[in-house]
Backbone:
């Protein structure tokens, strides 16, 4: 059989050892009437047939020569060649969660390095080992904030946050004693005053994003002050690539920082696996969900790494745990550490700068097209909203079909009154040529 | 080994970015001053060679299934076929943006559609969502579906979830996140849910039960029919924790056993790698009753076209930013196609065969299974006799490391003293099993002959036994550059 | 810079240690007039630009949906997915020749396993670690035979041997005191009688191939007897895939067996790297070229592996060495061992059978086409010669251009009087559907 | 570790072949009985998992550049960039049959064409062939070209090749294979060819000289101009062994130094991996004089079309079945493009800088360079003072293994006693070099303090020191199934 080893003779011998006659006897505890009849499944296929089948299936996808200006939470970035070589070392990827620390120093040290780098980027003291993705990390941050700010049940949600994230918040929030209060955006940025006016004694946290869904970056220092006056927490969801240029959430006064670190490894993989991250201030660490790695020593006093503060976690604390998370996105923490090490400090800074530069160039090129304008002029990172003179969905559709340009995300589906608007993303992977072609094509289509 | 951050040296350059082909615009120029980062983050500065060596050498300080036996109970550490990785890496799915127009993502949607179908066939359910990122996430999803069902039917009083004391910690934790109170049910002396306790706990507030079947003891629940019937009489639902599905494929389907909803662990049963702690994937399958509440988007197929359907009025909503851990699903589908129905049945047969064989032989060399029954794909030893002699399960486990064997799951389930939960999986050869048994026999002899060998183990790993207590008393969460 | 590490400051410090001022001083020994001016080269390119450039270059190649019936020394076979994963373990592929045995047990043991398997397949006692490719291995065998049969300088070459190999023999042979005597083929197989009649006291070796260039398999037992009567050596070049079905060269009486083990790993890679192999009888081992691994023990008596009989080799023996070979195709020996282990004994037998079966099916299907016939009916492996009713080059060209079928190798360029003949190769990778389409397309084109 | 053949068990199945979709025809049925193999070959029989583990664990008993410092002199063990491997693996070149019609192989031909051009520019030559599979093969090719040249010009008397005593063993071995007699030239006390001896050896029978420059001592030949001129006066040619090209890129070109022909080692200078002993690639570049004799096919470009040219009337003929180790060429071209002219110059600068730095520091800690000159990219220690104390170069080398450092080349070149030939390469960081120096200093101290540490080294590798003598006295060349 495909991946099993025993020959018929071996199976017989082993059954004999157990004292059984036939394989079916192993399943005697299953009541007769519950026995399954033969499953109807495709296969078995040989490796060759599988390859052919998936080549056929993959033909149904975009052929990758499309030029891509789509972001909205998933980003096309450069992946160094050494990355997958290292991550695919089988000692890493075929291991389980590092329960046996002595046999898992590779993974544990890598995650410790990941934690250190994420703290450094966000300006915080502690990072956990990972969350499922950006949206679930934000939700976990919200309920963590409720544990930090005890007995409070109100969460203020800035509507500049990615609507896909907000939809996810809504899914989970309905199950708990928790009220989500949405505050509308104002000209593409967070309405700090409106949020301030919404704060009260029941408020556990204010959730904002930076850059926000429209690509806009904002200084939340003032907001942080107000939030802290109410003894609530400021939770900031960030695109970590922007942190190569942006003042750290820590400096702005955030208490919990979350986000999606997919841009640090990049295969977009139709939406996953990605990696949610979470960092916070040391005083909140015992309220934090997920695994945390700590330095320690072995019996000889040599440095080593272990999982720590496990009394927060489900396998010890069960229903009193800070989260139900168990398997997280471990391999992607390693990936982030490797990625950041490979591009290095200066590469990281240059990366943010390249994204800003490309977006700046694209803004100029695209708004030269008659009738096309920037929706807002606010400082932005690698995304911006473009207003077209007509229904954006139609234009973007034609652009893809006729020019093989995926021009961005039409916003009609996500915000009212934005029928002509499209969210455009430009990264270091978009060449000047692609941008110029985009502008030219837009000119032809409008 | 030094940290990569400790190896850093100012001014060294790593891998270069694409050439900038547009005018450079710095953040300082583009943004108001107060938005601009004041200091470069202290990331490593190293040449490519040094980064490659660092992580190559770190990998050599880690142990994975590709190196040897990994009988970590409840985790189904089977061989991870390389063809899974090849298909995931080479077929171009990596370049597919999740918000791509559907007609340019037909391949990805076909993968999801077919995987859902296959999982339903294997489990005896009607529909499934592939969104949950892991088992625990699947549990939360399933329990939210139960909640949505009861809400829809006006049964808002149902606020209790029954959970056996043998359950995995994620079960109660997930139910709490879905807003339930937990009532824990004790186990009886055959490892079943104590049926008296169950009957006693049953009332109209009970929304459902979360069962693992076979349980975390590796035993099939013998009273499943009564449990299912009496819950269903009260319109309470049964949740199946599919962590142990590897035991019964082709032999029994949770949907046929009376369960209403379950999660799969693709990273266990369906051979996708655990990645040192994820990513996994925890699809949730449901019967008719729960279909209307499934998360959006669902994946549908009509007129030769696959599409994402957001128009599910009673849906609980989306669970993740996009559609779940797609690349993990891809691997699982490869695995299912490689095996086919016959192959999956054989998987469960050999998984159960191996567990019983190892259990029997370990009994012969002096170990004590926790329950006197034939097991399914795993079993739990009770090492309290050894602990009395000074060799705790922890010590036996650390000693196993010296022999190049990954220890079993320790101290779980909680109801077995000095528990050691052994799941060999079906991909292990007879020689591997026999070697494990011999090593266990030797360790048992060492308990009498040379206890220090155990209590001071491991002896030949990159580090000696690590100090957990210190780590929780004086935890160090991050390296601070300049601290050296 | 791309892969160097030093910063400017480090370079200055190091120069200081050496006592120099500037980098150029390191090159002071180069006479001024020999100094190079700046090189004119493309680049430097970033990884991203390199990827784009090679994607463009690769576009100039066949798009891989072609169906391929081309063999003639390079074959398209199934490659198990686990293969490249294992071979690309960097401990293997970034190592040098295992000069330091204690740090190279992985490679040394793998090659020892390779040697063992190659001996088993060919029915011989000793294998070396590898030669450059099938053609050079055959030449090395010829001159090895001259060392074994001292003072003899005649090598009889069967014209059924791949003409590409024979061209290579000719290149090298001209440099030594060595006469190549060619014996023409007879109806697509070796003319044993003609060879026997050519044997004399000057003959060092007879070179034959099995299956031969036309795919024909032949029992050389009788020829071996005759060759040995003249105290010459029988050298047999084999396609090792055929050895899953074919009587071993050892049993047939061959003295040296060589061949191309590319079919055991398969990327055709436009002709290389491939791997020549050579096995022989123990009595000839000291005349053998190339590296040989032997079992030995370490100081504790534990088994280990080392390179042995190095006194045959150039680094010890210099101009008296058995060959000049140094770097060989080491990683491919490992690859062969992994490949044979993965498909295993039964897989190997089934592989040969599949090739025979597919070729049988193809012969039937293709000769159903009006005017198309088999040139010879001799027993064959996975190749055969098809006679078309018209110029084969033209037909094959049209087949490729119009139907995306690479139908085989027209033989006009290689043998006189074979203008209408084409060498067709069918392996386990050709589906029945492909074969049927080939037949149908041929029908349309003729 | 057991051999894979020892782990085999009858009846186990490995990875399956494609499904047979035509009628099965056995060899027995298709062929006469006497052609059919009588017994199945005793190949391993194992499940995929066990094969993967075997070779994964074997790899862990091997040491490569990705693990650490590998200053193996003459071998240029630089970092092998992963982008090289990625391009080789992913761009579809693997599926390209060598006899494909040219118009379907334009990409591959472009790679070859451009690589040839780049190598010519780097070396100062006119044309090159990429066919040779390794350095030694390149030498043989180059010498055959010289022979063809002299033959063409009727100088059939020229049957002597001059080879310095410091030359690599492949040099004389290759010349012999091309039918030459070898006259070995001694070296002088600065590491140059002894110019008196050279003059003495010079006569009309001399076809040429094979020089390595910088030589295997890491030293530039100081009399190159005289050597070149006096040979050329007699129409004898100069062969350049390019193994040490890493020392001079962008600073000097062999073609400008007076050489007529050279080989490159793409697997040294151009970063392609050594693969534990190959495959390499040894292109040969020539000046005008030798162009007419280049092997067929040559790669040409005309009218926007690349093609293989077999129409080279004076060609020595083909060297390999096809066109050489194409996938190695591919990697080398990637490397050259990644670096550009500036990058390659920097490569040589840092290679030479590192060697001189290490030489200087080793001198300071008690080691003796064999020649009192500044070195190029490598240098040779003379450890005879250590050997007198009982620590041979072999012992020092084995001791290095204990520190996770691959030893340098031992006992080569032959003219230096207890030679240890150290080539750090340019991809090593300052820390790596400093660590090596410290370890060497420590080992030097150990010679006096605890000699056994050296003579019994290595101590912590998978095996202890291996018995070479036994292996050559009682060699065992293969495992015989059933022998256990
Ligand atoms: C029985 C059981 N249930 C649930 C889980 C949780 O699954 P995951 O780790 O994928 O979240 C596990 C995994 O350890 C388990 O063993
Ligand atoms: C100086 C010198 N010349 C020639 C060679 C032979 O090269 P190859 O091993 O590629 O055949 C080597 C390689 O070791 C060498 O160092």
Residues:
């Amino acid at each position: 059989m495909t991946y099993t080893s025993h020959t018929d003779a071996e199976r017989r011998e082993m059954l004999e050892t157990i004292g059984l006659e036939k394989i079916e006897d192993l399943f005697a505890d299953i009541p007769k009437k519950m026995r399954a009849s033969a499953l109807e499944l495709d296969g078995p296929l040989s490796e060759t047939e599988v390859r052919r089948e998936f080549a056929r299936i993959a033909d149904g996808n975009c052929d990758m020569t499309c030029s891509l200006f789509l972001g909205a939470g998933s980003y096309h970035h450069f992946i160094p060649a050494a990355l997958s070589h290292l991550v695919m070392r089988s000692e890493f990827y075929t291991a389980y969660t590092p329960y046996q620390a002595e046999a898992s120093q590779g993974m544990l040290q890598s995650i410790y390095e990941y934690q250190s780098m994420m703290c450094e980027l966000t300006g915080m003291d502690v990072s956990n080992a990972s969350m499922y993705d950006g949206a679930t990390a934000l939700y976990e941050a919200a309920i963590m904030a409720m544990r930090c700010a005890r007995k409070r049940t109100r969460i203020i949600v800035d509507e500049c946050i990615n609507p896909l994230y907000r939809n996810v918040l809504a899914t989970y929030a309905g199950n708990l004693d928790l009220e989500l209060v949405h505050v509308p955006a104002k000209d593409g940025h967070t309405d700090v005053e409106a949020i301030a006016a919404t704060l009260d004694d029941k408020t556990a946290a204010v959730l904002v994003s930076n850059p926000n869904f429209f690509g806009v970056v904002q200084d939340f220092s003032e907001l942080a002050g107000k939030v802290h006056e109410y003894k609530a927490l400021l939770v900031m969801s960030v695109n970590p690539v922007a942190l190569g240029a942006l003042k750290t959430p820590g400096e702005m006064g955030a208490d919990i920082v979350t986000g999606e670190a997919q841009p640090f490894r990049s295969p977009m993989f139709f939406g996953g696996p990605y990696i949610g991250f979470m960092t916070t201030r040391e005083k909140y660490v015992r309220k934090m969900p997920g695994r945390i790695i700590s330095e320690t020593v072995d019996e000889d006093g040599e440095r080593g790494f272990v999982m720590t503060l496990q009394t927060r976690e489900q396998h010890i604390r069960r229903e009193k745990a800070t989260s139900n998370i168990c398997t997280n996105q471990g391999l992607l923490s390693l990936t982030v550490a490797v990625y950041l090490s490979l591009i290095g400090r200066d590469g990281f800074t240059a990366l943010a700068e390249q994204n800003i530069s490309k977006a700046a160039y694209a803004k100029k090129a695209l708004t030269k097209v008659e009738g096309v304008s920037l929706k807002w002029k606010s400082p932005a990172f690698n995304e911006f909203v473009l207003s077209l003179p007509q229904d954006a969905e139609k234009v973007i559709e034609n652009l893809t079909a006729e020019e093989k340009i995926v021009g961005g995300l039409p916003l009609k589906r996500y915000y009212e009154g934005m029928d002509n608007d499209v969210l455009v993303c430009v990264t270091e992977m978009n060449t000047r040529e692609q941008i110029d072609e985009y502008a030219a094509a837009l000119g032809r289509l409008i | 080994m030094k940290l990569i951050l400790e190896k850093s040296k100012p001014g060294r350059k790593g891998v270069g970015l694409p050439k900038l082909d547009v005018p450079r615009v710095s953040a300082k120029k583009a943004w108001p001053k107060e938005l601009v980062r004041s200091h470069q983050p202290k990331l490593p500065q190293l040449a490519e060679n040094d980064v490659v060596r660092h992580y190559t050498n770190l990998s050599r300080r880690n142990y994975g299934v590709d190196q040897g036996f990994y009988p970590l109970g409840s985790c189904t550490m089977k061989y991870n076929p390389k063809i899974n990785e090849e298909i995931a890496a080479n077929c171009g799915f990596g370049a597919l943006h999740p918000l791509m127009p559907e007609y340019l993502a037909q391949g990805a949607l076909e993968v999801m559609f077919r995987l859902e179908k296959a999982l339903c066939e294997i489990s005896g359910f009607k529909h499934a969502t592939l969104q949950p990122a892991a088992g625990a996430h699947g549990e939360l999803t399933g329990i939210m579906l139960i909640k949505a069902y009861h809400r829809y039917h006006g049964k808002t009083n149902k606020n209790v979830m029954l959970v056996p004391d043998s359950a995995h910690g994620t079960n109660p934790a997930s139910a709490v996140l879905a807003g339930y109170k937990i009532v824990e049910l004790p186990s009886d002396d055959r490892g079943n849910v104590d049926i008296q306790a169950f009957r006693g706990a049953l009332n109209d507030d009970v929304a459902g039960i979360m069962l693992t079947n076979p349980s975390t003891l590796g035993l099939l629940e013998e009273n499943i029919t009564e449990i299912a019937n009496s819950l269903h009489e009260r319109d309470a639902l049964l949740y199946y924790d599919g962590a142990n599905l590897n035991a019964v494929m082709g032999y029994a389907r949770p949907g046929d056993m009376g369960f209403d909803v379950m999660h799969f662990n693709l990273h266990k049963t369906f051979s996708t790698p655990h990645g040192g702690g994820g990513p996994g994937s925890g699809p949730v399958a449901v019967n008719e009753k729960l279909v209307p509440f499934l998360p959006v988007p669902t994946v549908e197929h009509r007129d030769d076209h696959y599409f994402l359907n957001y128009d599910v009025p009673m849906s609980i909503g989306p669970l993740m930013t996009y559609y779940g851990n797609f690349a993990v699903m891809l691997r699982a589908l490869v695995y299912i196609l490689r095996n086919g129905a016959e192959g999956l049945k054989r998987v469960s047969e050999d998984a159960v065969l191996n567990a019983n064989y190892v259990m029997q032989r370990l009994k012969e060399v002096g170990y004590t299974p926790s329950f006197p029954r034939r097991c399914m794909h795993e079993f739990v030893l009770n090492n309290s006799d050894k602990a009395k002699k000074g060799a705790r399960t922890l010590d036996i486990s650390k000693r196993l490391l010296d022999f190049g064997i990954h220890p079993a799951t320790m101290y779980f389930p909680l109801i077995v003293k000095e528990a050691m939960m052994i799941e060999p999986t079906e991909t292990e050869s007879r020689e591997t099993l026999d070697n494990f048994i011999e090593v266990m026999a030797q360790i048992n002899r060492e308990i009498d002959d040379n206890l220090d060998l155990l209590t001071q183990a491991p002896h030949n790993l990159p580090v000696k036994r690590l100090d957990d207590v210190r780590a929780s008393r004086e935890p160090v969460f991050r390296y601070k550059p300049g601290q050296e």
About this structure: Chain B has a mean pLDDT of 97. Chain B touches chain D at residues 7, 9, 12, 46-50, 52-53, 56-57, 60, 66-68, 79, 81-82, 90, 427-432 (CB under 8 Å). The pocket of pyridoxal-5'-phosphate (ligand 1) is lined by residues A 326-327; B 74-75, 134-136, 168, 170, 212, 216, 241, 243, 265, 280, 282 (CB under 6 Å).
